[in-house]
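Working notes for the structural subgroup meeting. M.R. asked for a predicted model of this chain before we commit to crystallization trials. I am recording the input and output together here so anyone reviewing the notebook later can reproduce the run.

Input as submitted:
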Amino acid sequence: KPYLKVSCLSLFKSYAIWIALMLFLDTFISIALSYLQTPLLMIPILLTILPSIMGTSGNSADQTATVTIRELAINDLSGKKYRKFFIKELKASVLTGLIISSVAFLWIFMEIKTGIIGDNNLDMKTVLYICLSASLTFFFCIVLGKTIGTLIPKLAKKLHIDPAMITSPVVSTMIDIISICAFVLISHFILKIPLF
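Returned structure, recorded in token form:
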């Protein structure tokens, strides 16, 4: 049905259902943070970096999801066309991840050493490990986020659900959870801090 012919009540129903579902799924973000808070509290500066990882990863995923939704709307992305589209987006996500993670390493290093975030009294090895942890997380989450951003709209369309309605909230929530878990796990291995 064309948008202008859909009643306000119908729009409200379709919006409210998905937003309420995302509110429920946001509980998993709280769960992830509560179970994985030990490393974040041991090195508090990690907590100041986490929003950047979540935001950048979510933005990159939303960007790809928007392109995917547009392509689904104006082109037939079935079979071989979708595979070509997916591979092209995957290659672009790896390049994007490499560039952004490199910039993030340098940017976070500068933020820590100049005292913009945290205290600049951390020893150089710890600072480099923090930057490496963040950089690897940026790369992983951007590549995974962009991959999810190509899959969710296609899945929604297959299930006869409007991809424009659900993709952004679903992808954002998934990426937030993944970003928290990935950053804590990567920091755990690199910085040798306990998980629990």
